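Dear all,

This email documents one entry for the complex benchmark we are building for the journal club exercise. For each entry we list the sequence lines for every component of the assembly. Then comes the predicted three-dimensional structure of the complex as a token string, followed by one or two observations. Please use this as the template for your own entries, and keep the labels exactly as they appear.
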Amino acid sequence: MKKLSRRLFLGNTTALSLAGFFGLMPAADKSKQNKKGDFVHHVYFWLKNPESAADKAKLIEGLTTLKKIKPIRLARIGEPASTNRDVIERGYQVSWLLFFDNLEDQEVYQKHPVHLKFVENYSNLWDKVIVYDSVDV
Amino acid sequence: MKKLSRRLFLGNTTALSLAGFFGLMPAADKSKQNKKGDFVHHVYFWLKNPESAADKAKLIEGLTTLKKIKPIRLARIGEPASTNRDVIERGYQVSWLLFFDNLEDQEVYQKHPVHLKFVENYSNLWDKVIVYDSVDV
């Protein structure tokens, strides 16, 4: 049922709407739940020219091209927030957060021609990337 | 309109359902969109005893208590995936990913009694945390 709900949720607006309409899917609660087995891919980019607004904009342009890759469930492009405590890493310039249904979908993304093209065209912009891949416990 | 849609989406199942039913809100597309101004708080924990399944379970228990804090929009507890490349950081044991509507909501969370209690009761378990706070570009 949980799995089915998610599929409806992401793939079928009408079914979702009907389920919601009849009180079967409290959206607010669902949004906080872990989705077992899902895959979180979070990449942080350190630019070669960290002060260059142009380079940052270019990287963001490149990441935006990736959003169309099919199995991506959620994609967010971020930059460091204004928070500043000892434990907070603020040295990166761009954050790239993706959700996938599973490891296999993430591999489809990695090998996708659009992704390979992105690496080819934009990797000259960054000095370092750190990737955190995690799965729900 | 964008802001309104989000509020409906998260807070009002019936309105969402009706909007979706009449084709106003394509859920599948929405799920991939950036939500301007939103706040992503991602914490990675390195345990003092990285091999201890008991300590990891205890930390997960503690994080689970935090999920009820009101302004949290999404909460996910993760562990490193099986992926293994040079750029992937796999040294941490637990990932804690939260979405908030904005910086202010994240501050409510930081100062919430349940959060302070969590730090008091569970911080002995970890050796290091790294926090990445980001906002959508």
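Observations: The CA atoms of residues 20 and 28 of chain A lie 11 Å apart. Strands of chain A lie at 39-47, 74-80, 94-100, 126-136.
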